[in-house]
Amino acid sequence: MSPTSGVTPPAPLKTPRRRRVDTARREELLAQVTDIFLAEGFTSVTVEDLTRRMRCSKSTLYAIGSTKEQLVVAAAKHFFGTEADRIEQTVADHDEPQIKITTYLEGVAQAMRRNSSAFYADMVTYPPTAEIYARNTARAAERIREMIGDGVRSGAFRATNGTFAAQVVALAIEAVQSGTLLERTGLSAAESFAELADLLFNGLRHDS
Predict the structure, then answer these.
(1) Among candidates 57, 71, 188, 187, which has minimal Cα distance to 118?
(2) How does DSSP assign 158-176, residue by residue?
(3) Rounded to the nearest 5°, which phi and psi values hold at 25?
(4) CB 176 within 8 A of CB 193
(5) Residues 129-149: b if buried by 16+ CB within 10 A, e if exposed
(6) Percent of the chain with pLDDT over 70
(7) pLDDT of 149-173, one tens digit each?
(8) Model confidence band, residue 31 (pLDDT cutoffs 50, 70, 90)
(9) What whole-number distance in Å separates Cα of residue 91 and Cα of residue 131?
(10) Cα 82 to Cα 9, 123, 129, 194, 202, distances in angstroms
(11) Which of 95, 205, 189, 104 is nearest to 145 (CA)?
(12) How far apart are CA 98 and CA 204, in angstroms?
C-alpha cells in the first residue's frame, strides 16, 4: 500500500523503558535482587520495594527484566548458576573421588543454606522457578553419578557399591527436590545434602 493511500499506520506497541546499564552494573543489580529474594522470598516483595531499597529506578531494573516475573526467573537462574560455578571450582581443587563427591554435596548444602524458608516455599510452588530448581537438581544427581563412575574406574570404589550408591544418591536428591524427603525427615534441603555427604563419606570407602 502506498504512503499516499490515506491509511494511518498503527501506533507502535508501548514497552517499558529500559535504562542502558553496562554489564558490571547489571550483574551488581541482579546480585542485589537475588540476595533480597533469597532472604525474604519473592511473593511478598514488590518492584517498588526493590527500587526503594536498591535506590534505583524501575527503568534501571528493567535492564534485568521488564516484569516482576522476569526478575524472579533471572534471580533464580543467577543463584543456581553462580553457586554451580563456585561448587565446581571447589571440586576442581581435589583429585580423590571420595573428596570430590563430599565436597560437591557439602557445596550444595552450603548453597541451599542461603535460601530462607520463605524463598524455598516460593520457589517450589511457582512453576517457572520450580522448573529451574528441578533442572539443577537433576544436574546435581548426574554430577554425582559421574564422579562415582570415575571412582569406580579408578579403583577407589567397588563397582557394585558404586553403581548402587549412584542410584541411591539420585533418588535421594530427587526426593529432596520433590519435598518428600524433607517432609519425612523434618530436615531442610541444606541439612539433607549435608547428611547425604556424610553418609557417602562413611559408606563408599574401599576399606569399609
Answers:
(1) 188
(2) -HHHHHHHHHHHHHHHHHH
(3) -65, -40
(4) yes
(5) beebbeebbeebbebbbebbb
(6) 86
(7) 999 899 888 887 778 888 888 888 8
(8) very high
(9) 25
(10) 46, 17, 16, 20, 29
(11) 104
(12) 8
For position 62, what pLDDT does the model report? 87
Closest Cα to residue 24, out of 13, 16, 36, 32? 32
Residue 204: all three cell numbers together = 563408599
CA dist., res. 94 & res. 199, Å (int): 19
* Cell numbers placing 143: 554430577
Q: What cell was used for 42?
A: 519473592
Classify domain 23-203 by CATH number. 1.10.357.10
Report the distance separating Cα 28 and Cα 12, nearest Å: 32
Task: Determine the Cα–Cα distance for residues 120 and 113; give it in Å rounded to an integer.
Answer: 10
Residue 178 has pLDDT above 90, yes or no: no
Helices (H), the chain: 23-40, 47-54, 58-61, 68-91, 97-112, 117-125, 127-154, 159-178, 180-185, 189-203
Nearest to 167 by CA among 144, 193, 137: 144
Nearest one of 136, 128, 129, 200 to 168, comparing CA atoms: 200
How many CB atoms are closer than 10 A to CB 4? Answer: 6
The overall average pLDDT reported for the chain is 86
Domain-wise residue ranges, the chain: 23-203
